[in-house]
Design goal:
114 residues, four-stranded antiparallel sheet
Length: 114
C-alpha cells in the first residue's frame, strides 16, 4: 500500500485506515506487530469505511519508540452509519512503526441515527 514507511504512529494509523478502505490485508498484516498479529485477516464482509478523525495523539513521533493514536472512523453498514472509536497503541522497532493493539472507546452503532 505504501511506497515509504510511515515515520510517525499517526501516519501509520492513516495508512492502515486507507488499507481497510482498499481491502489491503497484506499491508494491515505487515504493519501489525508480530506479538499481536493474527495469522490471517479476512476482510470479506467488512463495512464500507468512510472517514477518519484523529482525536488525540501521545508520542509516536519519528524519534519515539511508542505512541498512542485515538481516532474515530466512520463506516456504512447495512445502510446505517456507524462509528468506531478506538485508542490504539503503536511501537517502533527497527525503524518501523507497528500497530500493537487498541481499546474500543464506544459502540460501533451511531446512536444519533435512530
Amino acid at each position: 500500500m505504501e511506497d515509504e514507511e510511515p515515520t510517525t504512529a499517526e501516519a501509520l494509523m492513516r495508512s492502515r485506515f486507507a488499507a481497510f478502505r482498499a481491502d489491503d490485508a497484506s499491508w494491515l498484516l505487515r504493519t501489525w506487530h508480530p506479538s499481536t498479529r493474527p495469522a490471517s485477516l479476512d476482510l470479506d464482509g467488512n463495512p464500507r469505511w468512510r472517514g477518519l478523525q484523529i482525536v488525540d495523539t501521545v508520542g509516536g513521533c519519528a524519534d519515539d519508540h511508542e505512541g498512542i493514536v485515538e481516532f474515530r472512523a466512520t463506516y456504512l453498514e447495512a445502510g446505517r452509519v456507524g462509528v468506531l472509536h478506538e485508542r490504539s497503541r503503536f511501537v517502533r522497532e527497527g525503524g518501523r512503526w507497528y500497530y500493537l493493539d487498541g481499546v474500543v472507546r464506544s459502540g460501533t452503532a451511531d446512536d444519533a441515527s435512530g
